[in-house]
Design brief:
Layout (H helix, E strand, L loop, with lengths): L1 E8 L16 E2 L2 E2 H11 L4 E6 L3 H7 L6 E4 L6 H6 L2 H4 L4 E7 L7 H13 L4 E7 L8 E5 L2 E6 L6 H4 L3 E10 H8 L15 H8 L4 E5 L2 H4 L5 H21 L3 E2 L6 E2 L4 E2 L4 E2 L4 E3 L3 E2 L4 E2 L4 E3 L2 E2 L4 E2 L3 E3 L2 E2 L4 E2 L4 E2 L4 E2 L4 E9 L2 E2 L4 E9 L1 E3 L4 E2 L4 E3 L9 E3 L4 E2 L4 E3 L2 E3 L4 E2 L4 E2 L8 E2 L11 H8 L1
Parallel strand pairs: 1-4, 1-6, 4-5, 7-11, 12-15, 13-16, 14-17, 15-18, 16-19, 17-20, 18-21, 19-22, 20-23, 21-24, 22-25, 23-26, 24-27, 25-27, 26-28, 27-29, 28-30, 29-31, 30-33, 31-34, 32-35, 33-36, 34-37, 35-38, 37-39
Antiparallel strand pairs: 2-3, 6-10, 7-10, 8-9
Bound molecules: uridine-diphosphate-N-acetylglucosamine and calcium ion.
Calcium ion (CA) binds next to loops.
Subcellular location: Cytoplasm
EC number: 2.7.7.23, 2.3.1.157
Keywords: Acyltransferase, Cell shape, Cell wall biogenesis/degradation, Cytoplasm, Magnesium, Metal-binding, Multifunctional enzyme, Nucleotidyltransferase, Peptidoglycan synthesis, Repeat, Transferase
């Protein structure tokens, strides 16, 4: 038996007013359609087909690392027509197809698993998710007879009686694949919107005597995002859910309403997060860390017992017991060791910094490989760019770089060497040497007095 998923993502999403296809808008840092794809996978549906249409190339590009297949719906003639466009994907398969929409990112894997299990256990032709809400305006209504689902009627096609029904179609279903394929052939577009409605399949199957199941679900899980306002609502709900999960795992979040953690971020136990932190993408934070206020950390791996304050860390690694900030900027492809100090107004770019090295203040290190146990004085600059090309600087272990030093790349500073403050280093410094590269100081005796007597 096949178990697979279809995700509808061909619609235009007019109300979001964007050049970007609606399903690529992000909620907690991840595209809505990718939330849905990932949820399908967690629910055990490995084979996922995405129906694309409006902005198809962008949607393909935005989902390219998700290992899904695609069906193309060139013209958007309705949700039933969209599913018809996946005929090639469906034909020859037997079993269950779960159909979800790319603009409803809050559905949970537990609910998806539940609906599939119910569908199989009850031997249904179709099983749908529904919600009960106070204001059902705009949604398809679930019409029941003797408590059994008879059909779905779209809002625009409802009569007065049907408009009063407050059980709505979530737009999420399981179908028997063969029954779905045969019913799709019977759809007509004779309705208020002139569209081929997927929802009509329910009435068709019912009239053929097939079993229709329905699972009432929290409305919060089924919310579809049609506008920026709804995008922000979804963001808030997911944010709360993510923060709650981390708190339940033993992480302290001092002000959850002001803490923004991406859907895929991992955090170790006993880490404390102050307000204003934004943790994005594929970020991992270790145990016992303290994230003081206002940092942005994206796609980075942070070790255990690290302290970070008011800094930006992108696509990098930071080792155990290191401290970063305030006001440090660690740019992509940096690898910071253990027990390192990256202090205020320090920028590190595409560099390796060895264990126990201290870069305490006002320093730029770019395209460099720095060993362990070094000390960078205040105001050191690695001069990595000659106006055309970037060059590499290598600093060995236990080097002491005096304040206000320029290291003009390419240059190598060997182990256990010293550089005098204010030096501009253009030649390699051998092991154990002191390098001084600055003009000698001259003191001119009586100069001040002479100057004032001239007046
Ligand atoms: C749909 C349901 C409605 C349900 C509601 C839940 C139908 C006819 N109606 O209405 O019963 O209450 O969802 O949110 O299914 N899409 C395509 N191709 C198309 C048309 C739509 O891929 O030709 C996609 C859209 O991108 C979207 C999804 O299908 O992701 C739903 O389409 P939408 O137009 O938003 O349907 P609703 O009017 O909301
Ligand atoms: Ca919708």
């Amino acid at each position: 038996m096949n178990k697979c998923a279809l995700i509808l993502a061909a619609g235009q999403g007019k109300r979001i007013k964007s050049n970007l296809p609606k399903v690529l808008h992000k909620v907690c840092g991840k595209e809505m359609v990718n939330h849905v794809i990932d949820t399908m996978r967690v629910a055990g549906l490995d084979e996922v087909n995405v129906i694309v249409g409006k902005g198809a190339d962008l949607v393909r590009e935005g989902t390219k690392d998700r290992n899904v297949s695609y069906s193309l719906q060139e013209e958007q003639l309705g949700t039933g027509h969209a599913v018809k466009c996946a005929k090639e994907f469906l034909s020859g398969k037997k079993g269950v197809i779960a159909i979800f929409t790319g603009d409803a990112p809050l559905i949970t894997a537990d609910t998806v698993k539940d609906v599939i299990e119910t569908h199989i256990k009850e031997n249904n032709g179709a099983t749908l998710l529904t919600s009960i809400i106070d204001n059902p305006t705009g949604y398809g209504r679930i019409i029941r007879k003797d408590n059994q689902v008879e059909k779905i009627v779209e809002h625009k096609d409802c009569n007065e009686q049907e408009l009063k029904v407050n059980e709505i179609n979530a737009g999420m279903y399981c179908f028997d694949i063969e029954l779905l394929l045969s019913s799709l052939e019977k759809l007509s577009n004779n309705n208020a919107q002139g569209e081929y409605y997927l929802t009509d399949v329910i009435g068709i199957l019912k009239s053929e005597g097939k079993k229709i199941g329905a699972m009432v679900t929290e409305f919060e899980e089924t919310i579809g995002v049609n506008s920026r306002v709804e995008l922000a609502i979804a963001e808030n709900i997911l944010k709360e859910r993510i923060n709650k999960k981390h708190m339940e795992n033993g992480i302290t979040i001092i002000d959850p309403s002001n803490t923004y953690i991406g859907a895929d971020v991992e955090i170790g136990q006993d880490t404390i997060i102050y307000p204003g932190n934004i943790l994005e993408g594929n970020t991992k934070i270790g145990e016992n860390c303290v994230l003081y206020p206002n940092s942005r950390i994206a796609n980075s791996t942070i070790g255990n017992e690290v302290e970070i304050q008011s800094s930006v860390i992108l696509d990098s690694q930071v080792g155990d017991e290191t401290t970063v900030g305030p006001f440090a900027y660690i740019r992509p492809e940096s690898n910071i060791g253990k027990k390192v100090r990256i202090g205020d107004f320090v920028e590190i770019k595409k560099s390796t910094i060895g264990d126990d090295t201290k870069v305490s203040h006002l320093t730029y290190i770019g395209d460099a490989k720095v060993g362990s146990g070094c000390n960078f004085g205040c105001g050191t600059v690695v001069v990595n760019y000659d106006g055309k090309n970037k060059h590499k600087t290598i600093v060995g272990n236990n080097a002491f770089i005096g304040c206000n030093t320029n290291l003009v790349s390419p240059v190598e500073v060997k182990d256990n060497s010293y550089i005098a403050a204010g030096s501009t280093i253009t030649k390699d410094v051998p092991e154990g040497n002191l390098a001084i590269a600055r003009a000698k100081q001259t003191n001119i005796e009586g100069w001040v007095e002479k100057k004032s007597s001239k007046k």
